[in-house]
């Protein structure tokens, strides 16, 4: 078999399509060679050889030696020097190169082929004795470290001592004789450590380095990295052996790394660093401070040292041409390594450059505008999840920050405001126009109003799926959760952390994208929603089939969602409206009432409030469908939980404390999520749903009358398990609609449908579709009930389940396709069979998750619905799924 592929000179056996066989580096070196770029000649030993080597119990196939000799002959032919020749030696580099770049692998050995004799030849041919001995000592150091396994500290220490003895600070101040002495010192150290001398034979050196590359494939570090990144062990690594070029041959030599566009902003400008008279590792190692590539970058940074554009103008122009050629050729931003040897440019590597979300967006849109890629490709190149980072205000990266602790980055974006420690204070102070940050040990549904009033939320307890995290993400509020080092003292209204104290009212800043908590205000920068972002979204909208709606119940969230392109509301959770301080009293009165008559009295107080909510939402969403879900949570959620609240609530509700206590005890449930909630409330207390339906239809008629806009209410019944439940609730809704239409002398179109969030409902979809005009998959509850895992408590053990591969991803984040997915498939099929016009959507958290959206596209659902800030993510993900 062919184990060795040549590149450079006039012979490139490989190309960019051969990454699997040649690794990324080898394939791209061959590609650059074949398109005429200056690549030092070399050869690649394939990844297949790596596999064969391990298959055979760590022995090489017998043909390999001859092929390597031929490969060397290729290099020698092009360069005109001979490997191991004492008079004029060929030196090579040896580098690993897997399919994807992989930390943990042996990286590089430079200057291989030097020994006590060839170093003299190099000194003579280069005319630079100091350079030759410096190269030799670098080689001994690198080879001993990566091939012989000696600690590089050994050599660094010797170098430091040598510098001290000479009274100099910089390597560059050492003379040829100093390096010569150091080489002797290094070699003695190797022999003392290993009991044998440093290898002098060039062939032995080469095979040693090749063996070290293959050996490093099975190193512990590489194994760990592969596991974390799902890289199969069977892939193997390639080895690249390449003629050395020297960036350290004086002032006309240099070495550098560059990106063809700015990897952090995406700006279309070359971005990079270089060093004159240096070898590759000097740039990365931080021994000397690298200089800017372009004059513009140098000036912007206010740096003095000449940029490459200024110091080597001709070579710079040549390099810039190569950048453009590579970008056109690869049709992507490239990350490049190069060396200049005595004025001659050499390319050492090119690959697709890593970039930030912001840069990914800008580069994709720019390249499509430049005609380099198609809009479809631009759509596919941006990771939808990464858009999240771009939609929120972010901290000004140049502003100073006084970080006091770090928690979990629970909901992205940054916010500053006065510290407050309870939700009522948050609401009161924000009502007075103040920005506040709500700081709690943890949050509960009673904090909704405070969370809404706050610019950001900080909690001491709770993970990424805690109440605070989920609700904050839904509202688009920045949130840092689980900042365990903070201690909140409610008596003195202070927060203590790492010896610092924050009093109520002190300004704090949180960064929900990093988890950082800071004292004081840090300026933020607003996201740019027009421009590149808007352009990409336009393209995505022309490609997607799925509609994208939003889960929202406040006017603010509705407006945000429309601004982000929501095409309707897929879920308006009406219970959130009941927590409002002004209404909770009437809600409690309704719950505490002894009979239907009492309940109706309380409901009559809620009716105008609820009508006002819906009117505002219908106005904002004019022309778009609005799905309103009738009351869902168990009633005890509205009653007080803490002892100290009973008195106050009893007083404001006008009942005795004892009555309140008794009723609370009566409503207690061991398993409230499987208890008296959803349509079960409507079955027991139809008057609640009747009030809500009335509020919906009265509001719809009002808005239609006033503005003439098409208002399309979709009334949704939660937690249905049987067709009969829906039949009963639909009767209440239809009856109420007719009553309102008669009273108002006006009718309008509306739909009645149900959530599918219980396995039984999915299975009995055929009968349920007989009553329902639409299904909305409530995948939060459907996941909870299908998997039998409590969505509120799963955080404690789901991590283990994901670690052990039981579920590939958190099933509350990304849909469990095999289980929950099959239920959806069954429900969609049976529902559509019974009613071909049945509208299908999803409104669980999964509606904003790209992988789940892909599943929904596969099921040909009509829409996905997600929190406002995820709307753009869903639009992009839906387009990617459709392409
Ligand atoms: C669901 O269960 O998926 C859903 C959207 O409803 P909620 O999260 O309000 O229970
Ligand atoms: Mg639900």
Automatic annotation (TrEMBL):
Keyword Magnesium assigned: yes
GO molecular function terms listed in the Swiss-Prot or TrEMBL record: pyruvate, phosphate dikinase activity
Domain named PEP-utilising enzyme C-terminal: residues: 530-881
Named cofactor requirement(s): Mg(2+)
Gene3D superfamilies: 1.20.80.30, ATP-grasp fold, A domain, ATP-grasp fold, B domain, Phosphoenolpyruvate-binding domains, Phosphohistidine domain, Pyruvate Phosphate Dikinase, domain 2
Domain Pyruvate phosphate dikinase AMP/ATP-binding residue range list: 20-58, 62-306, 316-369
Keywords of this entry: ATP-binding, Kinase, Magnesium, Metal-binding, Nucleotide-binding, Pyruvate, Transferase
Family according to the record: Belongs to the PEP-utilizing enzyme family.
Protein name stated in the entry: Pyruvate, phosphate dikinase
């Amino acid at each position: 078999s062919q184990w060795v592929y040549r590149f450079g000179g006039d012979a490139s056996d490989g190309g960019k399509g051969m990454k699997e066989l040649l690794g990324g580096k080898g394939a791209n070196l061959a590609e650059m060679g074949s398109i005429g770029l200056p690549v030092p000649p070399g050869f690649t030993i394939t990844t297949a050889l790596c596999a064969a080597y391990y298959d055979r119990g760590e022995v090489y196939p017998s043909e390999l030696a001859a092929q390597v000799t031929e490969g060397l002959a290729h290099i020698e032919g092009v360069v005109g020097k001979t490997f191991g020749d004492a008079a004029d030696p060929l030196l090579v580099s040896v580098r690993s190169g897997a399919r994807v770049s992989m930390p943990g692998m042996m990286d590089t050995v430079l200057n291989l082929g030097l020994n006590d004799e060839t170093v003299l030849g190099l000194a003579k041919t280069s005319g630079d004795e100091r350079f030759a001995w410096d190269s030799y000592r670098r080689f001994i150091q690198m080879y001993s470290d990566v091939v012989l396994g000696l600690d590089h500290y050994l050599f660094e220490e010797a170098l430091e001592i040598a510098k001290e003895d000479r009274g100099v600070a910089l390597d560059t101040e050492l003379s040829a004789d100093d390096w010569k002495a150091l080489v002797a010192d290094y070699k003695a150290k190797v022999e003392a450590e290993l009991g044998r001398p440093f290898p002098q034979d060039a062939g032995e050196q080469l095979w040693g380095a090749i063996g070290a590359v293959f050996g490093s494939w099975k190193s512990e570090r590489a194994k760990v990295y592969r596991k974390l990144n799902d890289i199969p062990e069977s892939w193997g690594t390639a080895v690249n052996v390449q003629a050395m070029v020297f960036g350290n041959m004086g002032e006309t030599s240099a070495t550098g790394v560059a990106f063809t566009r700015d990897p952090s902003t995406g700006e279309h400008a070359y971005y990079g660093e270089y060093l004159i008279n240096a070898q590759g590792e000097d740039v990365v190692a931080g021994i000397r401070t690298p200089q800017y590539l372009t004059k513009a970058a140098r000036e912007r940074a206010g740096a003095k040292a000449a940029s490459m554009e200024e110091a080597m103008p001709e070579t710079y122009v040549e390099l810039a041409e190569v950048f453009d050629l590579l970008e056109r050729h690869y049709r992507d931003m490239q990350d490049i390594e190069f060396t200049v040897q005595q004025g001659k440019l050499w390319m050492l590597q090119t690959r697709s450059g890593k970039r930030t979300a912001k840069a990914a967006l800008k580069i994709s849109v720019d390249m499509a505008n430049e005609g380099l890629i198609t809009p479809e490709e631009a759509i596919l190149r941006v990771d939808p999840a990464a858009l999240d980072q771009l939609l929120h205000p972010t901290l000004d990266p140049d502003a100073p920050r006084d970080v006091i602790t770090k928690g979990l980055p629970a909901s992205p974006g940054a916010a500053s405001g006065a510290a407050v420690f309870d939700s009522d204070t948050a609401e009161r102070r924000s009502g007075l126009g103040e920005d506040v940050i709500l700081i709690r040990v943890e949050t509960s549904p009673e904090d909704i109003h405070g969370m809404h009033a706050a610019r950001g939320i900080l909690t001491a307890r709770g993970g990424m799926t805690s109440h605070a995290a989920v609700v904050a993400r839904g509202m688009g509020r920045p949130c840092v959760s689980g900042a365990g080092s903070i201690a909140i003292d409610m008596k003195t209204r202070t927060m203590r952390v790492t010896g610092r104290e924050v009093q109520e009212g002190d300004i704090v800043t949180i960064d929900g994208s990093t988890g950082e908590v800071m004292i004081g205000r840090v300026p933020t920068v607003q996201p740019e929603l027009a421009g590149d972002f808007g352009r990409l979204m336009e393209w995505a909208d022309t490609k997607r089939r799925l509609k994208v709606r939003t889960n929202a119940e406040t006017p603010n969230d509705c407006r945000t969602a429309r601004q982000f392109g929501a095409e309707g509301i897929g879920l308006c959770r009406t219970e959130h409206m009941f927590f409002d301080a002004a209404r909770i009293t009437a809600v409690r009165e309704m719950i505490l009432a002894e009979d239907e008559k009492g309940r109706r009295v309380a409901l009559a107080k809620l009716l105008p409030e609820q009508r006002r909510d819906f009117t505002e939402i219908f106005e904002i969403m004019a022309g778009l469908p609005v799905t309103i879900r009738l009351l869902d949570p168990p009633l005890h959620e509205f009653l007080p939980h803490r002892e100290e609240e009973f008195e106050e609530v009893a007083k404001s509700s006008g009942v005795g404390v004892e009555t309140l206590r008794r009723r609370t005890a009566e409503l207690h449930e061991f398993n409230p999520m499987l208890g008296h909630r959803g349509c079960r409330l409507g079955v027991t207390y139809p008057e609640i749903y009747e009030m809500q339906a009335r509020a919906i239809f009265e509001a719809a008629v009002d808005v239609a009358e006033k503005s003439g806009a098409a208002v399309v209410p979709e009334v949704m019944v939660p937690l249905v398990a049987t067709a009969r439940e829906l039949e009963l609730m639909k009767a209440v809704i239809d009856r109420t609609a007719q009553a309102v239409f008669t009273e108002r002398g006006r009718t309008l179109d509306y739909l009645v449908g149900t959530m599918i969030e219980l396995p039984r409902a999915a299975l009995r979809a055929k009968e349920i579709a007989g009553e329902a005009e639409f299904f909305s998959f409530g995948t939060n509850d459907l996941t909870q009930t299908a998997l039998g895992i409590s969505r509120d408590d799963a955080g404690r053990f789901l991590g283990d389940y994901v670690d052990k591969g039981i579920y590939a991803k958190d099933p509350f984040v990304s849909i469990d396709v095999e289980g929950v997915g099959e239920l959806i498939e069954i429900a969609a099929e049976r529902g559509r069979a019974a009613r071909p016009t049945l509208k299908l959507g999803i409104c669980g958290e999964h509606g904003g998750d790209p992988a789940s959206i892909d599943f929904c596209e596969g099921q040909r659902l009509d829409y996905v619905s997600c929190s406002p800030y995820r709307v753009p993510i869903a639009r992009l993900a839906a387009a990617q799924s459709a392409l």
